[in-house]
Design brief:
alpha/beta; Spore Coat Polysaccharide Biosynthesis Protein SpsA, Chain A
């Protein structure tokens, strides 16, 4: 990858209650040469904002918790204003490897595509069962309503070129943002590619997964997400 392309890459990280993990995430990214990092604190209850404000990043903040999608969109909008040519979005809990961000960028540069998704379902074992099931359901719902079929529609680990970046302007604040952004990318005739990624499970990320593994909570959230996607597909 050329030096020029690296200099125009911005990392966008939505963060909610990530004070324990976010500094390590930023350190890992900097070890791989990423300097332009935008972190959006989505109304955290802990001291996430104070931590990210000390990391020499662009630290943004929602005063109330709006949802991961809203935080991601705020970060993407900031990257647009900063004139980023390429953006990588990733989670702030330490589950993603910074070297995989490099692989996303290499694929974006080498293939004739506009966005590359880091897929947890392409050869990745160890993904919690409930999360795997919900991802597969999300894939088919995304295909059914938006006509986009990928192996991990719910992955937030993505690389966008400028065309794709400008295409994403979603007002879906929560987890349906990932599917809605695919809808917008399709409408903009963006070419979507995928590569397999690894996921590392820290005590912090596993705790978050455990909170999401309550069947009744997952079922309720899944129906809410489905309802919002149906409404979007009707009125988009």
């Amino acid at each position: 990858m050329s030096k020029k392309s690296e200099n125009n890459v911005t990392i966008v990280i939505p963060a909610f209650n990530e004070a324990i993990a976010i500094e390590s995430v930023v350190k890992g990214l900097r070890e791989y040469g990423f300097e332009d990092i935008v972190i959006v604190d989505d109304g955290s209850f802990d001291n996430t904002y104070e931590v990210i404000s000390s990391l020499n990043c662009i630290a943004l903040r929602h005063q109330v918790n709006r949802g991961k999608g809203a935080a991601a969109q705020t970060g993407l909008d900031a990257a647009k204003l900063l004139g980023a040519d390429v953006v990588v979005t990733m989670d702030g809990d330490g589950q993603h490897y910074p070297e995989d961000a490099k692989k996303l960028l290499e694929t974006l540069q080498e293939q004739d595509c506009d966005v590359v998704i880091g897929s947890r379902l392409k050869g990745q074992s160890g993904l919690p069962l409930m999360r795997r099931i919900m991802n597969i359901v999300g894939n088919w719902v995304t295909y059914l309503f938006y006509g986009v079929l990928v192996s991990d529609s719910q992955s937030g680990f993505r690389a966008y070129n400028r065309k794709a970046l400008m295409a994403v302007n979603s007002n879906m604040d929560r987890y349906e943002f990932e599917s809605d952004s695919l809808r917008q990318l399709k409408q903009a005739d963006c070419v979507i590619s995928e590569i397999p990624i690894k996921v590392q499970y820290t005590e912090h990320s596993l705790t978050k997964y455990n909170k999401l593994s309550v069947p009744s909570q997952n079922l309720a959230n899944g129906f809410k997400m489905l309802y919002r996607m149906i409404i979007r597909s009707i009125f988009a």
